[in-house]
Amino acid sequence: MRKNLTVEELGDLLDRPFNAILATYRRDGGVLLSPVWHEWADGGFTVVTSPRDVKMRHIERERRAAIVVADHEPPFRGIEVSGTPTVDHNVLVAQAAMQRIASRYLGEQRGRDYADSLGEDVALIRLAPGALRTWDFADDAALA
Q1: Could you tell me the pTM of the whole model?
Q2: What is the Cβ-side half-sphere exposure of residue 72, based on CA atoms within 13 angstroms?
Q3: Which domain holds residue 70?
């Protein structure tokens, strides 16, 4: 397994519409793992959710999170970012991000329609390294 790759060495992994898994932390220290749509830009992940969502409550209380994206086909690339997320409650910023993200997953028109259906019930979570871990199995002939 190759480790400590640059984001560029992961190729198109972060451009593909894979679900990410966002880890947030409950008051008792337990982990909540949530599949989320994401956008990678400016060295970090952006996730849009409702400001009332449990993930948002966890982040605002615990001030830590982690997110992972991995593909399911050779060479089995992946990236994990963990650290202190920031939250932006600016509805216009979150709506614009949601429209970009939803369009990537659903196509332009369906993505716009979905983003519009959320109205103002959106807030933005930003998770930039922090700790960055990357890998692939390109050097493992049995897996690649």
Answers
A1: 0.93
A2: 5
A3: 2-136
